[in-house]
Design goal:
The complex is a heterotrimer of chains A (629), B (400) and C (263).
Chain A: H1 2-32, H2 39-56, H3 59-84, H4 96-116, E1 121-122, E2 132-135, E3 138-141, H5 142-164, H6 166-176, H7 178-183, H8 188-208, E4 215-216, H9 220-235, H10 240-260, H11 265-279, H12 308-322, H13 324-327, H14 330-355, H15 364-380, H16 385-391, H17 393-407, H18 412-432, H19 434-437, E5 443-444, H20 450-453, H21 455-477, H22 480-490, H23 492-497, H24 502-528, E6 530-531, H25 538-551, H26 558-576, H27 580-594, H28 598-610
Antiparallel strand pairs in A: 1-4, 2-3, 5-6
Helix pairs in contact in A: 1-5, 1-6, 1-8, 1-9, 1-10, 2-3, 2-4, 2-8, 2-9, 3-8, 4-27, 5-6, 9-10, 9-11, 10-11, 11-18, 14-21, 14-24, 14-25, 14-26, 15-16, 15-17, 15-18, 15-24, 17-18, 17-24, 21-24, 22-24, 25-26, 25-28, 26-27
Chain B: H1 2-20, E1 27-34, H2 40-59, E2 67-74, H3 79-92, E3 97-100, H4 104-117, E4 120-123, E5 140-142, H5 147-158, E6 165-169, H6 174-190, E7 195-200, H7 209-219, E8 223-226, H8 230-243, E9 250-257, H9 259-262, E10 274-277, H10 286-299, H11 305-324, H12 329-336, E11 340-341, E12 348-349, E13 361-369, E14 372-381, H13 390-396
Parallel strand pairs in B: 1-2, 1-3, 3-4, 4-5, 6-7, 6-8, 8-9, 9-10
Antiparallel strand pairs in B: 10-13, 11-12, 13-14
Helix pairs in contact in B: 2-11, 3-4, 5-6, 7-8, 11-12
Chain C: E1 6-17, E2 20-31, E3 35-39, H1 46-53, E4 61-66, E5 69-70, H2 76-81, E6 84-87, H3 99-110, H4 126-135, H5 151-163, E7 169-173, H6 181-198, E8 201-205, H7 209-215, E9 218-223, E10 226-231, H8 233-238, H9 240-262
Parallel strand pairs in C: 3-8, 3-9, 6-7, 7-8
Antiparallel strand pairs in C: 1-2, 1-4, 4-5, 9-10
Helix pairs in contact in C: 3-4, 3-5, 4-5
Pfam families (chain A): BPD_transp_2 (PF02653)
Subcellular location (chain A): Cell membrane
Region (Disordered) (chain A): 610-629
Chain lengths: 629, 400, 263
């Protein structure tokens, strides 16, 4: 019995650290609607600074003071980031802030290694909390008890802050309706800055408090960020109590789950999230998102098919691309193939995101399923390459059909998180089911047949498929289906009122996007000759998002450019420098600030300006496209 | 569509990059790939090691009179990126052979690439047995003692323990799973009387150490096998120490004696664990002394195991290239098979049968000295003594 | 007109939220070609009523029959397929598409081409779309992005969209809110003309009594969720109960009305 009590308390201690970080994220998202990918980075920097301070300062005061000062220092960094970077892009399309914070995260990961070195650092134990307390023969670390108390205390302080102060009232109001607060004449800028600071403070505090029980290292951020997102979503976005309950739920399920299924940890949070979201689409304590209000008088450039001149230009560009093998070496051709494949991947997500208004955070699942489909068919069934290429993507199609059905029941961030959960579930199946998928050692030897083996032939194959896919999706955008899909994105209410089954349209779009991604994955398997769980992983999903956002989510051809620029740059940087993350991150941040509509969006605006007909409304930037309703 | 213009631009950039790398006749190039940005704690010492080797080789006149150049690429910890890098090295840089890699899946990805493109590949660090056995191929050789070898070395010591009730803690991925599987198999062969009472599989890099320690303690084993490393190990040790998990229990632990993993534990290093590792401070052989002196002189730092692996990878590669007298992969394979190379750990041989090097490892016990973790009572285990019989190996390895 | 068939028959419609009756036992009928106004003070239950009629909201009890078919449990899109067009109090349009594309989407849906992935939507029934836009006086705006339109134009666009499926019944929730007085009269005249020509039944709510009394054939009055009066404009105008309700509320209406226009 004592064991179960102790296991429960241990779970609570884990929950406390999770809650600190999650509450900060929840507050930030609730008010600013920023999907703060950099939250984990702030957590990590909090731990690093706390490590340095507690190492230099002695005594109990030095330790606890160091922790608090570290959190404050990081909060200050957060304020700077908010004022210098995020403030410029609040009106950019939704999720653009995700791109900015993603770039920031990349930079921080390299920076901490530059500053603190590559080794894992062992922080000081907390003075007064070094030992353990005996509980009927079981030991509970006294630091755990401290954390168990701290969690509810922070919850209480936050509650008081939100319920008893004017600032808190404003924050709560803003969580429910941003525009209303703006209408009340509150200085929204400083409200956002202060909220961001509080959120970052909590993240950094969470990180700093880890140093007595963890190693401080440069991958801490990735270790926590996804889990924290999941906790926030399970609890309900913007709900502090929800974050607390979800943190406890997840930690306790893990603490007891591993007694029965020792391998459950790897997937548990995602399973819980998937179940919670299917049963309660807004999380345990969340409320339906207030539909984003549209101010009349704003617009984006209406989409139109290419003019005949543009068609000729594209054809010419394609011709040049097709002539690449005449003068480029094998390496350039293989990189070209990889870029072409990522164009397929990016346009497939773009179709879902820009046309359907559904931002998937787990699109790599269908890319990877396509790749695994090919690998299974080629290695187990021994089918010829052409058959594998045709049938492999069907696995992506199947996955998209099943998961998409559930995912489209939700919208906005909840949709994004459910797709993420599904992707992680698929990933962990690929990772764990060693007998079928080879686990993380993957499936090897999926090389192309002779006719496609030479780099130039494969390049033509990839370029050809990428062209076909891009054209097909473009046709779909301007097909009756594409119009109706955009209609559901713009107004679900109106769409239903004119006979459109919104969910079915979205589901169809999801399946189309998933299948298309699967085509990319199928080619990728042959390009690399192997398939790994990485092909389904979060970082690939994030890559896809970045490519779409970089190109411009409000444009038709943004994904193509985004994929080419991002992938080419990425490959080049990784080859040139070990600090590729720093450079790439800085580049992304720069793009976000300079081209808040993405590269193609920017070009379109310039073209429009040159024509003299400045787009109606300087409000261009104010129009959030995305899962608005 | 402006899209295509960008495409062409990118293509040109790549093209120019490709042409710039003209092959100079007086150089021999080795293409090296590792997870520098993902795992700097392990790859930095490794890089220092191979850089030292390159310096020594060129100071001694290069390879058959030609200067050795190592072109190094980061793989970011992704198999797909490692293949892109391998392709660049082979297609654009025209390297004579590939070397390096740390993670098992990346080692396998590059090995498969090497097999497909018919390029010689010397895998430096990946531990998975698949590299030389189930997914072995004729182009791939491996330097570091494999999972099986490390397990066999530990089992030798572990089987002498009186403990009968064992629990395992291992990261939930291929490395952890196969380490536990091999250990269990070899252990049960030697000690049919032991029982496996609990197993914990925390996700790699994401251990929630409290509940794991608690769960293992609840099973009340007499001995524990640990396979976690890095930050997970730190958390596990801290929780385990505080909760008294390791008190009066024997612990056998993979790799923990390597300075990369042992040093971060500082004064919290648990004592008496049976580990494999690299006690650089207590190895007193002329070969090692020479290496240690050169390394410390160049870097003003002590070597980690990665330094040895990096150093020996390039030393071995150079020996292979020198003996082959050619960069033709078939000749390189012929030269490498059965080749003996000196190392800081003594002479090693690349076995013809499975292309595994016989480089060994040290087994000893952890101890605390001046607030730092060290390995004591350590002894060098020759790799050749911990590999299965040739008949077994032939069954494990596909025919070329 | 008295022989026109019954389009819509509502019986005992009831809806409550948390114990408060929003709509209670409302029954009325609407015939083809008839223009029926639903009026009542703020919070009388008009919008709730409307939402139930096209399936946006499910009644607690009661029955709705459209063209003889029970539509009580049907979804908005199913109700629309039966030939019911609807405009919203706060306009709902496709803001990133052009005016013509807004109408084309409705035409695509009407012709069941929603899953057509191959055809060209920009050319889809272009003439019909333009014809509908011209009908509501929006012909010159066809290529303008919908997001640029003034509020009154959005209302007209909604009417064009609502007419795209050749409806037999139009549900118009405050069709003239936010319009200048002149525009209101134009729009309602237009609506009345179309209704008479095509024998479409129209049910609308309206705050502007001038509009109501000029265009409605019949008026029903809701107060606190119940029907308090029904009859011709003259009858309703003379109803003391209606007068009582309205005398106290007139000012409130106007204020709310303007506020609504601003959002």
């Amino acid at each position: 019995m004592a064991f179960y009590v102790v296991q429960f308390l241990t779970g609570l201690a884990s929950a406390a650290s999770l809650f600190l970080v999650a509450s900060g994220l929840s507050i930030i998202f609730g008010v600013t609607r920023i999907v703060n990918f950099a939250h984990g980075a702030f957590y990590m920097v909090g731990a690093y600074i706390a490590f340095t301070l507690t190492d230099r300062l002695s005594g109990a005061f030095g330790f606890w003071g160091g922790i608090v000062v570290a959190a404050l220092a990081v909060a200050l960094i957060g304020v700077l980031v908010e004022m210098v970077l995020l403030r410029r892009i609040y009106h950019a399309p939704e999720l653009f802030q995700l791109l900015a914070t993603f770039g920031l995260t990349l930079m921080v990961e390299d920076l901490v290694v530059l500053i603190w070195g590559p080794d894992d650092l062992l922080g000081r134990r907390a003075p007064g909390f070094k030992g353990a307390v005996d509980f009927f023969g079981q030991n509970i670390p006294s630091y755990d008890l401290f954390l168990i108390v701290l969690g509810p205390v922070v919850l209480g302080i936050l509650w008081l802050l939100f319920q008893r102060t004017r600032w808190g009232v404003l924050v709560r109001a803003a969580t429910q309706d941003r525009d209303m607060v703006a209408a009340l004449g509150v200085n929204q800028k400083w409200l956002f800055t202060s909220v961001f600071a509080v959120g970052v403070f909590l993240a950094a505090l969470g990180g700093a408090l880890q140093i007595p029980r963890d190693a401080v290292h440069h991958a801490m951020d990735l270790r926590i960020i996804v889990e924290v997102f999941v906790v926030v979503v399970i609890g309900g976005l913007g709900s502090i109590v929800g974050a607390f309950v979800a943190a406890v739920l997840v930690s306790e399920l893990n603490a007891f789950g591993i007694l029965i299924f020792p391998k459950i940890s790897i997937i548990l949070v995602f399973l819980v999230m998937a179940v919670v979201l299917i049963v309660r689409p807004w999380g345990l304590f969340g409320r339906p998102e207030a539909p984003a209000r549209r101010t009349p008088g704003l617009t984006v450039n209406p989409w139109r098919p290419l003019t005949s001149n543009e068609r000729l230009a594209s054809l010419a560009a394609l011709g040049v691309a097709a002539a690449l093998p005449l003068f480029a070496g094998n390496y350039a051709l293989t990189v070209g193939s990889e870029i072409a494949i990522f164009v397929i991947f990016a346009v497939s997500l773009h179709f879902l995101m820009a046309v359907g208004g559904l931002a998937s955070f787990g699109h790599a699942a269908y890319f990877g399923l396509g790749a695994y489909g090919v690998a299974f068919l080629a290695k187990m069934a021994g089918l010829p390459m052409i058959v594998c290429l045709l049938l492999g993507p069907l696995l992506g199609c199947l996955g998209a059909a099943v998961f998409g059905f559930f995912a489209v029941q939700l919208s906005g961030v909840y949709f994004a998180m459910l797709t993420l959960a599904f992707a992680q579930i698929v990933w962990s199946i690929a990772f764990q089911w060693v007998s079928v998928t080879g686990g993380d050692n993957g499936i090897l030897g999926v090389w192309p047949e002779k006719w496609a083996a030479s780099p130039s032939h494969f390049y033509w194959l990839a370029l050809g498929v990428a062209t076909l896919v891009t054209i097909a999706l473009r046709i779909a955008v301007f097909s009756p289906f594409g119009y109706a899909l955009r209609a559901t994105r713009d107004s679900a209410l109106r769409s239903e009122a004119i006979g459109i089954n919104v969910k079915r349209m979205q589901w169809t779009a999801f399946v189309i996007a998933g299948t298309t991604a699967g085509i990319g994955g199928a080619l990728f398997a042959y390009l690399k000759g192997s398939v790994f769980p990485d092909n389904l992983g979060i970082s690939l999903s994030v890559d896809a998002l970045v490519m779409v956002l970089l190109g411009g989510v409000e444009t038709v051809s943004g994904a193509v450019i985004g994929a080419i620029v991002y992938k080419a740059l990425n490959i080049w940087l990784v080859s040139q420098t070990d600090l590729s993350k720093l450079v790439l991150g800085a580049f992304i941040v720069l793009i976000v600030v300079v081209f808040p509509k993405g590269i193609v969006g920017m070009l379109e605006m310039l073209a429009q300006r040159r024509k003299g007909s400045s787009p109606p409304g300087s409000t261009l930037l104010a129009k959030p496209i995305g899962p608005a309703e | 569509m402006r899209a295509k213009n960008y495409f062409v631009g990118a293509a040109f950039a790549l093209l120019v990059g490709g042409m710039a790398s003209s092959v100079r006749a007086q150089e021999i190039k080795i293409g090296e790939i590792n997870s520098y940005s993902l795992l700097p704690a392990f790859t930095e010492p490794y890089r220092k090691g191979w850089q030292l080797a390159v310096e020594e080789i060129n100071a001694a006149g290069g390879i058959n009179g030609k200067k050795l150049v190592v072109i190094s690429k980061d793989d970011g910890g992704k198999p797909a990126d490692a293949q892109t890098a391998a392709n660049e090295l082979v297609s654009s840089e025209g390297v004579a052979m590939l070397a390096g890699t740390f993670l098992s899946n990346i080692g396998l990805a590059v090995s498969d690439f090497a097999n497909q493109k018919k390029v010689f590949f010397l895998a430096a660090e990946p531990l998975t047995d698949a590299v030389t056995w189930s997914k072995g191929n004729k182009y791939t050789f491996r330097l570091r003692p494999s999972n099986y070898m490390q397990a066999a070395m530990l089992v030798e010591a572990a089987a002498k323990l009186p403990a009968k009730r064992w629990a395992t803690i291992a990261p939930n991925y291929e490395y952890g799973q196969s380490a536990v599987a091999v250990f269990k198999k070899l252990m049960s062969e030697k000690r049919p009387d032991i029982q496996w009472v609990d197993e914990q599989w925390p996700p790699q890099g994401k251990i929630d150490a409290g509940p794991v320690v608690q769960a293992v303690a609840q099973a009340n084993p007499e001995a524990i096998l640990n396979v976690t490393f890095g930050a997970d190990l730190v958390k596990l040790v801290r929780e385990g120490n505080t909760r008294g998990l390791f008190k009066d229990r024997a612990v056998v632990s993979f790799l923990t004696g390597e300075p990369e993993y042992l040093d971060p534990l500082k004064d919290e290093t648990p004592e008496g664990w049976i580990v494999t590792g690299y006690p650089w401070y207590s190895i007193k052989t002329p070969e090692h002394d020479a290496f240690l002196k050169a390394y410390q002189a160049k870097y003003n730092d002590y070597p980690r195991l990665g330094s040895i692996v990096g150093y020996q990878t390039i030393k071995s590669a150079a020996a292979i290239l020198a003996k082959a007298g050619s960069t033709d992969p078939e000749k390189l394979i012929a030269a490498a098979e059965g080749l003996s190379v000196g190392s800081p750990f003594g002479e090693t041989t690349f076995r013809k049968i499975d292309h595994q090097s016989t480089l060994g490892a040290f087994v000893g016990k952890t101890a605390l000295k001046d607030g730092k973790g060290v390995m004591v009572e350590s002894s060098y285990k020759k790799g050749a003594d911990y590999l299965p019989s040739d008949a077994e190996v032939e069954k494990l390895r596909p025919k070329d | 007109m008295s022989v026109a068939p019954t389009l819509l028959a509502v019986e005992g419609l009831t809806k409550s939220y948390g114990g408060i009756h929003a709509v209670r036992g409302v029954s009325f009928e609407l015939r083809a070609g008839e223009i029926l106004a639903l009026i009542g003070p703020n919070g009388a239950g008009k919008s709730t009523c409307f939402d139930m009629l096209n399936g946006q909201n499910k009644p607690d009890s009661g029955r709705i029959r459209l063209l003889g078919e029970d539509t009580t449990a049907k979804k908005p899109r199913e109700v629309w397929r039966l030939g019911v067009g609807r405009t919203f109090q706060i306009t709902a349009t496709f803001a990133t598409m052009t005016v013509r594309e807004n109408v084309q989407v409705a035409l695509i849906s009407h012709q069941k081409q929603l899953l057509n992935l191959w055809g060209s939507a920009p050319r889809f029934d272009r003439d019909e779309a333009v014809r509908l836009l011209e009908l509501v006086g929006m012909g010159g705006y066809a290529d303008r992005p919908c997001g640029e339109l003034a509020y009154g134009d959005l209302k007209r666009l909604e009417l064009a969209v609502a007419l795209a499926n050749e409806p037999k019944l139009l549900l118009m929730d405050e069709p003239t809110a936010g319009m200048a007085p002149r525009e209101r009269i134009d729009l309602m005249r237009l609506t009345a003309r179309i209704a008479r020509e095509k024998s479409i039944g129209v049910l609308f709510t309206e705050h502007d009594m001038d509009v109501v009394f000029e265009h409605a054939d019949r008026i029903i009055v809701l107060n606190r969720g119940t029907l308090i009066a029904e009859g011709s404009p003259t009858e309703v105008r003379g109803n003391p109960q209606v007068q009582a309700v309205y005398l106290g509320e007139g000012l409130v209406y106007d204020a709310r009305h303007r506020e609504g226009a601003a959002t």
